[in-house]
Amino acid sequence: MKRKAVSKIFYILFLICLPVLFAVTSYGCKDETELKWEWDDTTTVEKPRFIWIDAAANFPDFANNKDNILRDLTLAKNAGFTDIVVDVRPTTGDVLFTTDVVDQVTWLGAWLPSGYTKIERTETWDYLQAFIDAGHSIGLKVHAGFNTFVGGNVTSLGSEGVLFRDADKRGWATQLLTESGVVNTLDQGGSGAKFFNPVNEEVRSP
Predict the structure, then answer these.
(1) DSSP strand pairing (192-195 vs 181-184)
(2) Confidence (pTM)
(3) Which residue has the higher pLDDT, 73 or 26?
């Protein structure tokens, strides 16, 4: 009795699944040339293709060499990219373009085959402008990328940024709520980016 009941169940399941199996098999055998788009290709607008140029990771190549910038942007152009986003305010909070409002980046840490290394910028030409000139010369659009409200960074190579250089700016740093109470992010220790407190009016002032 049990074997008959099991056999009957399998038979019923087979009858239920058979139409689905037939439909899937039939669809798979359909000539692909019969499948057509439901829209007119002429109305499709090509989307821009962006590539992000991280400051620290690319500093060994770009910090002091305009030829390398043009070389790699050309590679990006040939690969089909249309837009370049250049990181000009990395996690130190200093910048990579000409301005008298904030300090210039003088060094960044980057990973090399030999390990995490300090890469110094010795050139004085405008880093962002070099990307703009090179990008526009080969038909790329260039955008500037910023880390908002970052004021310094701590790595195994040391600390850098206005929060560490200027003691008067200590009050600009983010306040953190910890188990032991509210502490200044500079007192928390550890590595990583240190941010300004956006509530502070001095931070928001132009």
Answers:
(1) unpaired
(2) 0.74
(3) 73
